[in-house]
Recover the amino acids of this structure.
């Protein structure tokens, strides 16, 4: 392995976690996580941290959150038996349908939770970043519902390949700001959102969209997204007659994956498999497979695995899916990989598109291209582990990907 954390140390830390003690008070996941930010951000993060401690598990806040999940988001989302894929793969395949959540992906679980928190903290306006646009749409929807103005920063490259989502955000009342600096994708958008937040840390709330960034965001997002795994665990017991042998999720920043994995971490019989974007291949800059090729470093306030060159320059990334196109990954995933609790593999652009097509034809479901990476990984796992029960996090629907699909799978069909 190309990084320097001793697996022994990581395993020990994970055992402590099974006792319920991570992240620690400084937001550390073993050696990962923490808070590496300019002084100007510290008071804002402290205030957020205090707010999270005070409200997140408070009965009144939880009641309000659960009511929104039920009546606005449409939870619990279905667990679907994929019987045609099961037959084709020689497995028993189950799909946790976050594509059926309001606005079409898991992002809304986090957005509505943080927007409620922002209100409690007295914020007057929300800023957010978005990659695929799904987090922007979810945030715009949550802000419209709660009556808060919302500004969304989005890399200029992403505004083009996710044009339908830009329109949706604007219809929902958000101001969308295309970011032309840096890599012009998610990383640059996060930088801009942080800059905006620093200029008014009291009145503005930064609604971060994945399990990344400085403490307490990775913890906050995990807690809000864990509803995915909690529901799926219960539904597997009721509908499939037992726990899955493996749970599979795609990994960009890692929020749908940690939401799915976290409630299964203490189940030793459940293997956990995260699938990153293998892009065009293993070359530097050709993929977004951070856990596979990254080394420890600081990115956007957090010590985690980062795609970087020999001089520590953060690498630009490539993936056919905007939502996976990020050079960092949540610190908890860095720990879970180092400790050997979760296995991370990758699927290339072509493998993902092929799996997307198979899911459409076999199950009548058009998944997001991000999600299709999980399908490609699950299909490969099924080949080596025949006859097993597989749970896939279907993180979102693919309608937003039509511009990309027109240029790839549909090319020549028109
Ligand atoms: C944003 C997004 C992802 C990737 O983000 P994570 O934080 O890794 O979950 C995956 N799937 C869909 C549909 C998304 O919108």
């Amino acid at each position: 392995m190309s990084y320097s954390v001793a697996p022994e140390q990581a395993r020990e830390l994970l055992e402590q976690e099974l006792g319920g003690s991570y992240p620690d008070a400084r937001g550390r996941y073993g050696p990962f996580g923490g808070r590496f930010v300019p002084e100007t951000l510290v008071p804002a993060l402290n205030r957020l941290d205090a707010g999270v401690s005070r409200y997140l598990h408070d009965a009144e806040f939880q009641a309000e959150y659960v009511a929104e999940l039920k009546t606005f988001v449409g939870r619990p989302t279905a667990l679907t038996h994929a019987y045609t894929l099961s037959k084709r793969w020689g497995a028993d395949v189950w799909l946790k349908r976050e594509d059926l959540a309001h606005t079409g992906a898991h992002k809304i679980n986090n957005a509505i939770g943080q927007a409620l928190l922002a209100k409690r903290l007295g914020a007057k306006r929300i800023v957010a970043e978005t990659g695929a646009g799904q987090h922007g749409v979810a945030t715009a929807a949550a802000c419209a519902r709660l009556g808060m103005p919302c500004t969304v920063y989005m890399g200029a490259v992403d505004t083009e390949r996710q044009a339908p989502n830009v329109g949706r955000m604007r219809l929902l009342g958000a101001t969308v700001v295309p970011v032309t600096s840096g890599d012009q994708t998610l990383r640059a958008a996060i930088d801009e959102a942080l800059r905006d937040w620093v200029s008014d840390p009291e009145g503005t709330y930064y609604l971060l969209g994945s399990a990344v960034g400085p403490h307490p965001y990775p913890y906050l997002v995990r807690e809000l997204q864990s509803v995915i795994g909690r529901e799926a665990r219960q539904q597997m017991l009721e509908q499939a007659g037992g726990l899955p042998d493996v749970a599979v999720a795609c990994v960009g920043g890692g929020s749908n994956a940690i939401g799915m994995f976290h409630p299964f971490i203490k189940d030793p019989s459940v293997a956990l498999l995260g699938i990153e974007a293998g892009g065009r291949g293993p070359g530097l800059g050709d993929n977004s497979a951070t856990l596979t090729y990254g080394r420890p470093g600081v990115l956007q306030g957090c010590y985690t695995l980062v795609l970087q060159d020999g001089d520590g320059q953060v690498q630009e990334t490539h993936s056919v899916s905007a939502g996976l196109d990020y050079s960092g990954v949540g610190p908890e995933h860095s720990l879970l990989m180092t400790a050997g609790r979760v296995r991370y593999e990758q699927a290339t652009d072509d493998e993902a598109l092929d799996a997307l097509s198979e899911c459409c034809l076999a199950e009548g479901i058009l998944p997001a291209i991000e999600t299709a990476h999980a399908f490609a990984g699950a299909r490969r796992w099924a080949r080596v582990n025949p006859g097993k029960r597989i749970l896939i996090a279907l993180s979102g629907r693919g309608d937003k990907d039509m511009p990309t699909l027109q240029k790839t799978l549909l090319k020549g069909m028109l």
